[in-house]
Amino acid sequence: MNIAVVAPQSSHWEDTYRAAAVLVKAFLKLGHKSWLITSIFHDGRPAVDVDAVEKSEGGYVVVEGDVSGVPAIRVISGRSLVPPSVIYLRNFPRVLNAIDEAYGLDAVVVVSSFWNGPEDVARWISIKKSLLTIGEVSKRPFFVYVPVLGGRAPLKKPMEAASRVMWSTLYLPQVLQQVDVVVAVSSNEFYDLRQYRVPEDKIVECRDWVDPDVAELAGGQLERPKQAEGYDFYVSYIGPLDEDRNIRGLIKVAERIASMGNGALIVAGAGEAEEKFRREAEGRKNVILIREHGIRTIASIIRWSLAGVDLAFYEPMGIRALEYLYFGVPYAAPPTSNAAYFITNGVDGIHLESANDIEGFVNWVSTLLREPELRDEMSLKARKKATERTAVKLAETLLMRLAS
Fold this sequence. Notes:
Blueprint: E1 2-6, H1 15-29, E2 33-38, E3 41-42, E4 45-46, H2 50-54, E5 60-63, E6 72-75, E7 77-79, E8 87-89, H3 92-103, E9 107-111, H4 116-133, E10 142-146, H5 158-170, H6 172-178, E11 181-184, H7 187-195, E12 203-205, H8 212-217, E13 233-238, H9 247-258, E14 263-268, H10 274-281, E15 287-290, H11 295-303, E16 307-309, H12 320-326, E17 331-333, E18 349-351, H13 358-370, H14 372-386, H15 391-403
Parallel strand pairs: 1-2, 1-9, 2-6, 9-10, 10-11, 11-12, 13-14, 13-16, 14-15, 16-17, 17-18
Antiparallel strand pairs: 3-4, 5-6, 7-8
GO molecular function, one term: glycosyltransferase activity
Domain Glycosyl transferase family: 230-384
Keywords: Transferase
């Protein structure tokens, strides 16, 4: 089958966008052809020659060695000037039609909300349904939607919150009317979708998001990160560096870890607040920033972590937590991160009281150091929970729905 996964942009660090590439990998692992259809942007910056895309005949270019790590189709796109800055795909129904004519798409999966991708694909699918009804076409693509609604946007961003409410009111019902399957990334999102009267049998509530490439490394030898040499233990955060990620909270964790012994904090990521993070971390030798995004590097950081942590003020997906659990590494997250949905409190990690619950996290780390048998027990339970949670399982579920 030929399957397109559509997202606003690609990313090494942002889970919502990373998920699209992970799903492409899963379809490829199952022997299907799959592409990431996305904008010219990767982590907010152009990833291809913009002029080449603009001058292309169909409004897109195919990139085999794409920075996303999967076969990609980069389309004509832009970014809104009025806050919140939103990436959009230009003339997307026309471009998608050209891609469909070239590749014969059997399914289109759209990831993320609050941008024009879902509504444009829904409109395109509606036209395909009409053409099928009157016999103009013999088939239409299967339409899957992964909305990642993420609850409320942070109150410190009222413009973004208002635009999301408007989008959910005007466009989300239209999109949900056209979908064949909706993938909910949490039980809360499942209930939110039911409020829009989406039939229960159309919703797949799914925790199967472990990157299959990361999973393949779990059973092999991985060296401890060289940057952690000289430290007895470290805790880690992997993800974007922006204001929503509570970078000040991460620095406070490092300060407290330093007082507990020869420990460090490894932060793997990049983003708009990276320079601010560097300034905050200046002079703190036990703060290690790693910008390398290779799968083996990420897997190594996870494997040797005492624990993983997410202190985000707002994280709508949080699937990186599943990769920690897959390696048997306990994880901590606040209720403002969807990562908490994947964790059973006190079993394979902990639920923090808030994004600023530094005390709760460091006390837990202290307990894991004092009681290694507790850490071992949590590790076993984490591994058991996540062992079947690779994205290949989600891809299989979607393909079964398509076949039925």
